[in-house]
Write a structure and sequence with these properties.
single chain; 348 residues; alpha/beta; Rossmann fold; Arc Repressor Mutant, subunit A; 3 domains; 6-stranded mixed beta sheet; two-stranded antiparallel sheet; 10 strands; 39% helix; globular
């Protein structure tokens, strides 16, 4: 039985949270590597690994990749019964996408393997791994995503799933989905962040040299992700804003940093980042507040000022919208009871 705490990730008896990755013929090595790298880099304050990683296949032995080499996998589907989290990356055609009565059905071997997963286990997919979860009935009535090129097939085969084709990843509690290869990194970091907080997730991001946080609601496909060489970027304004989150920041001020009109800056920003400047600012301020709640004993009032929310009430509103808890509850989760930060924290 898992003990209560940050994500319930440490099992009774001190066993580490076990992440089992299910690979099949046609696997994308990069997707499998992402899972092992992100969870494998997560460390406690004393440097101990926080997760145990296991790779399994439908049968132990050689598994074909989508290129010209194979991977030897030591574990069979019995490993799924020991998992606290199961990750299903993309692979070849282990479900039927054709028209007719067999459409969207799993192979008997894969269905039998998935039946080994214990109730209450967290299950996640990357890219077209969402087809496997949907065919197993795990996504019925839930919000999910998959790679933008597979959207039409997915909607035709699984009309009972609430497909959101425009996001990087979705989190429905026990079931999560990521849109594609790179967003698998975002999803794994999101799970680490939910389990152990922003500080651990940010440390993993630094170790693996990836962005520490891209919200699931960010667009998965930006038509011009890199600005044309002759056009200015909004990167300098973003870097400057991160150094001045504690003060009010207007669109006019940010645009002036890049010598652009507000209209041009807003359009260029959305093209490069996928969301509006104000949405981006709010997310950065929430991340700053989370970091301060986890790593300092500052009062909630002070954290609200340092992160640019101004008041504890504003911070409480935005943190509740982002993670579903109050600042006080969030701090208690990652710093323990009685760590509210002294006078001035109020009932936030």
């Amino acid at each position: 039985m898992a003990v209560a705490g940050a994500g319930g990730v440490r099992e009774s008896g001190g066993r580490r949270h076990r992440v089992v990755v299910l690979v099949r013929d046609g696997m994308l090595p990069m997707e499998v590597g992402i899972v092992h790298r992100i969870f494998g880099e997560a460390r406690s304050a004393d440097g101990e690994p926080l997760y145990e990683l296991v790779t399994c296949a439908l049968r132990p032995g050689e598994v074909l990749t989508d290129t010209d080499f194979t991977v030897r996998v030591a574990h069979g589907p019995e490993a799924l019964a020991t998992a606290d989290t199961v990750v299903v990356p993309a692979s070849g055609a282990d479900y039927d996408r054709s028209e007719g009565c067999g459409a969207g059905r799993l192979s008997a071997e894969l269905a039998g393997a998935l039946d080994r997963i214990r109730p209450g286990t967290r299950v996640a997919s990357i890219c077209t791994g969402a087809f496997v979860l949907a065919a197993a009935g795990l996504l019925d009535g839930r919000r999910a995503t998959t790679h933008w090129r597979s959207v039409d097939d997915f909607r035709r085969l699984f009309p009972s799933v609430e497909l959101d084709a425009d996001v990087l990843y979705t989190d429905s509690g026990e079931v999560l989905t990521a849109a594609g290869v790179a967003s698998g990194t975002d999803l794994c970091l999101h799970m680490v962040r939910c389990d152990h907080g922003a500080a651990v997730a940010n440390d993993v991001a630094r170790r693996t040299v990836v962005p520490p946080h891209r919200e699931g609601g960010q667009a998965q496909y930006i038509r011009r992700p890199v600005p044309e060489p002759q056009l200015s970027s909004t990167g300098a304004a973003r870097a400057w804003a991160l150094e001045h989150l504690d003060r009010p920041l207007s669109l006019r001020e940010l645009a002036a940093r890049e010598s652009m009109s507000v209209r041009t800056f807003t359009r260029r920003f959305r093209e490069e980042v996928g969301i509006s400047p104000l949405q981006w600012l709010t997310r950065q301020r929430v991340e700053r507040a989370r970091q301060l709640l986890e790593e300092t004993a500052l009062t909630v009032d002070r954290i609200a000022a340092e992160s640019g929310f101004g008041t504890a009430a504003s911070l409480r509103q935005h943190l509740q919208a982002a993670v579903g808890v109050s600042p006080r509850a969030y701090r208690s989760t990652f710093r323990g009871p009685g760590s509210e930060g002294g006078p001035g924290h109020g009932d936030a």
